[in-house]
Give the backbone structure.
Amino acid sequence: MTAPAATALAPGLTEELRAAVGEAHLLTDPSIVASYETDWTGRFHGRASCVVRPADTAQVAAVMTAAARAKATVCVQGGNTGLVGGSIPVDGAVLLSTARLTVLEPVEVAAGQVTAGAGVTLAALQRHVRAAGYDFGVDFAARDSATLGGMAATNAGGERVLRYGTTRAQILGIEAVLADGSVISRLAGLPKDNTGYDVASLLAGSEGTLGIITRLRLRLAPLLTERAVALVAVDGIAGALTLLQTARNRLPTLEAAELFLADGLALVREKTGLPAPFAAEHPAYLVLECAGRTDPTDDLLAALDACDADVLLDATVATDTRGRHTLWAYRESHTEAINAAGVPVKLDVAVPLTALGELVAALPTTIAEAAPQARLILFGHINEGNLHVNILNATDRAEAVTDAVLHLVAAHRGSISAEHGVGRAKSRWLHLSRSPQEIAMMRAIRQGLDPDALLNPRVLLDAPPPTDRGPAGANSA
Ligand code: FAD
Ligand code: MLT
Ligand code: ZN
């Protein structure tokens, strides 16, 4: 039998929400609401009182106006691919899904810009702009589900940050609904506009705590169709960093440099059935991708040739679409392969490149001390010193293991969140990356825009310590 939804809404609010979004888009059936209540990893859960699915900015504003009047909590969900527990409701909240905010305006070819709804998926945007001879600067494996609003809210990074920067760098304008229902809209896309605070930059990375993003004005990248991908085996982090430096110095077309290790490869092969990429096993692997208007293969091969044999242990290069996708699959399948092995504690950190080797060396002992049964899988975006620290068999020790890893990262002058955001999973540790003054400033901005903390409570700021729940390690939001 399905459990009832956590809290019934005040009758007046129910009517107002129904009037705002229409009968069909106010969801209250617990068995339907349930599909919005668990995150992608299966670790975080929350009980919504209902789900609303507004169709446009005006409907989002009507929902927020009604919620503000009733002082009802509203949690925002895009594609629900977020990995820090921020996309699921706190118990009793109205869950606002952006799934219907899918307007995609024609590409403005002269400006190289497009305006898109917050609920448009990354893959839908890619198809749309590629048909017009452009591309989008951010890409990652969750492209079929992750939405532009979620990407902006988390300032998502991904595989092309090396060349194009994070999502924030692609945003030229934004439209959003604030907690009181008012709308800010700045979508002209002016590349130069020094008229005070940069609202789009402020909302990027705010994780739904300052407003609900409804539309975005995006900068587009050139469509580069000539591509070559290399999978390279190296002896460890030192070798990977040497190879990265050679690739960056010699390859102006370099677009991606991604790292994984031997145990991650083994897990991916177990899940996907992919063959071993090389005759021998190696400690670490890099995926390098070059893209240009002319074929970059010769340049890529020359750069690999320039590496010493004790650095580059083996390599394979693909230029055809299928071959390139196969090499990428070794890297992009990590997240799903890890989830298939159990509910992970996922940490996403960054340290200066000079500290990366030391961090990787210290992690196994630090984690084993906090969670003796833990299994560690590391991979990431090496150019940004961004390591994805995935810890299996540790959900019952999630708090201890998170505490140990994030303190280790802070001791290496690192960030507790490189690209996934802070969410509810890491808000307790924000002080390890931000000064008291910075946190006070963030709180003041939040308080000014949302004095009753109605939007995404306990995300990023104002969180009590996470409590681990039950043997499955599920944390209630
Ligand atoms: P959700 O998960 O729905 O929400 C994420 C956060 O944004 C929540 O706090 C939510 O409340 C808020 N939010 C969502 N929409 C809005 C809106 N319109 N307005 C205000 N707030 C909003 N992330 C990376 O950075 N780089 C990667 O390489 C990467 N790879 C991934 C690969 C896989 C297989 C998976 C499952 C995830 C990956 N992620 C990656 C994490 C995730 O995809 C990103 O964080 C993405 O930006 C989340 O988008 P979403 O639409 O799913 O947002
Ligand atoms: C990735 O780079 O693949 C993602 O950020 C997802 C993850 O960390 O699992
Ligand atoms: Zn990543």
The domain at 13-97 is CATH 3.30.43.10 (Uridine Diphospho-n-acetylenolpyruvylglucosamine Reductase; domain 2).
